[in-house]
Design a protein that fits this description.
Strand content: 5-15%
Number of helices: 5
Largest sheet: 2 strands, antiparallel
Strand order of the largest sheet: 1-2
Order of helices and strands: EEEEHHHHH
Distance between the termini: 93 Å
Structural class: mainly alpha
């Protein structure tokens, strides 16, 4: 019986060029693209990756509206009490504004996708936090008095 070395590098299978990018790929690793041709895994996944990036860009652009709404919810919480739970609306405004701030700062593509809305998004989020904290302080002060 012949023993084979389990740590020996396997013999390379001859590859075929991908019709799209000309990268050499083993025949067994070719995949069907959306157009019906056999391509490498990178080229097969390219349309899905482009669609995902477009969705992410749309989500990033909606952060401006979220920051604006946190200001509105914070202002609204001065006048409206949600079924006796006085701290609910301010906490919603604070939570959404904090998450938008964190997302803007941590996401390296947010500045590119938001464009001119980037700085106003950060400023509106901070304003929303301060307005909601003020409303929460007023509600607590009114209840204590």
């Amino acid at each position: 019986e012949e023993m084979t070395d389990p740590f020996a590098s396997p013999t390379a299978t001859p590859g075929v060029p991908c019709p799209s990018c000309q990268r050499s790929v083993p025949q067994a690793q070719l995949q069907m693209s959306e157009s019906g041709t056999l391509v490498c895994g990178y080229c097969a996944a390219a349309p899905q990756m482009a669609a995902a990036e477009s969705d992410n860009a749309s989500r990033r652009k909606s952060m401006f509206i979220g920051a604006l709404s946190s200001v509105g919810i914070g202002a609204l919480s001065f006048c409206v009490e949600a079924r006796g739970i006085f701290f609910l609306l301010p906490l919603v405004a604070i939570g959404s504004a904090v998450m938008i701030l964190i997302s803007c700062v941590r996401d390296p593509d947010a500045k590119r996708d938001l464009g001119w809305r980037y700085a106003p998004t950060l400023i509106l989020s901070a304003i929303g936090i301060f307005i909601a904290l003020g409303a929460l302080a007023v509600q607590i002060f009114v209840r204590m008095a």
